[in-house]
Amino acid sequence: MDITKWKSVAVAKETHTLLKGWCNEKERNPARMISKLVKDYIEYQAKKKGVSMEKYKSSLLQGLKKNGKG
After folding, report:
1. d(C-alpha 1, C-alpha 65), whole Å
2. Cβ(21)–Cβ(13) under 8 Å?
3. d(CA 37, CA 22)
4. Is the pTM here over 0.85, yes or no?
5. Among residues 16, 36, 41, 68, which one has the fewest Cβ atoms lying within 10 Å of its Cβ?
6. Rg (CA), the chain
7. How would residue 67 be classed by pLDDT, with cut points 50, 70 and 90?
8. For residue 23, what are the contacts with CB-CB under 8 A and spacing of at least 6?
9. How far is residue 40 CA from its own chain's centroid?
């Protein structure tokens, strides 16, 4: 697996089961559903803060770099 493109995360079993059920209902795979959730939430937060989505994404990434986690 190319670690520059893909990451894995651990979630509680119940969360994973609910995600799989939701994905089945929406005909998406879990990776695409998580991506959609993150994108939608970033759009929501950017709108709430009155900035563009790109500017908000940039600020999140810069915060990671400052903390040595990017």
Report:
1. 24
2. no
3. 12
4. no
5. 68
6. 15
7. confident
8. 29, 30, 33
9. 9
Can you read off the two tokens belonging to residue 21? Answer: 């059920």
| Pair 43, 53: CB distance under 8 Å | yes
d(CA 18, CA 5): 25
Residue holding tokens 């939608």? 40
Q: Residue 13's pLDDT band (boundaries 50, 70, 90)?
A: very high
Which two tokens mark 28?
């998406």
Whole-number Cα distances in Å, 38 to 1, 26, 42: 22, 16, 6
| Residue predicted with more confidence, 11 or 1 | 11
Classify 38 in phi/psi space as left (phi over 0), alpha (psi -120 to 50) or beta: alpha
What DSSP state is assigned to residue 38? H
- pLDDT tens digits, one per residue of 33-62: 999 999 999 999 999 999 999 999 999 999
